[in-house]
Design brief:
The chain has about 160 residues and is mainly α. It contains 8 helices and no strands. The chain has one domain: TerB-like (Orthogonal Bundle).
């Protein structure tokens, strides 16, 4: 029986298409959270798409089909998700506390990519930060820093 189960699992893994990212891959989790944030306000702008593509390309040194495959895997995972826990737990296993705070800055940069910030985007990032153990203070500081980067100056009293 064990041999039969092992053969079944091996058969499943052999059927995965080339370039597929495995379950639990932190790159897919990161991309999925990015999609969750981008889609929170109901629209995904071209600026947001372009920023996501640049982020994934630079962060993971990917190009061409591999980059497209990661983007698609992240988009699909984000659409199938019922909550953020799956993605945040994958990332929590791979990121130290400083990297988790940095991740909030990246997500805020995505929010500001289209020049607008919505309550829904705020809420999504708040939930993600909470699940990743990022303090309210660090989350707000990252939001202010992202706003300052977007406006090219000081975020002031945001």
């Amino acid at each position: 029986m064990f041999d039969r189960l092992q053969a079944f699992i091996q058969n499943l893994s052999e059927r995965q298409p080339e370039g597929e990212f495995p379950p639990g891959d932190p790159r897919v989790a990161f991309a999925a959270l990015c999609f969750q944030v981008m889609e929170a306000d109901g629209t995904v702008s071209e600026d947001e798409r372009e920023m996501l593509r640049d982020l994934l390309r630079d962060r993971y040194d990917l190009a061409g089909e591999k980059l497209n495959s990661l983007i698609e895997a992240g988009r699909e995972a984000g659409q199938e998700a019922v909550d953020y826990y799956r993605f945040t737990s994958d990332l929590n296993r791979h990121l130290d506390p400083e990297e988790r705070v940095e991740l909030m800055g990246v997500l805020w940069d995505l929010v500001h990519a289209d020049g607008e910030r919505s309550e829904m985007e705020d809420h999504v990032i708040w939930r993600i930060a909470d699940l990743m153990g990022v303090s309210d203070r660090d989350r707000v500081l990252q939001r202010q820093d992202a706003a300052a980067r977007q406006s090219g100056g000081d975020a002031g009293g945001e």
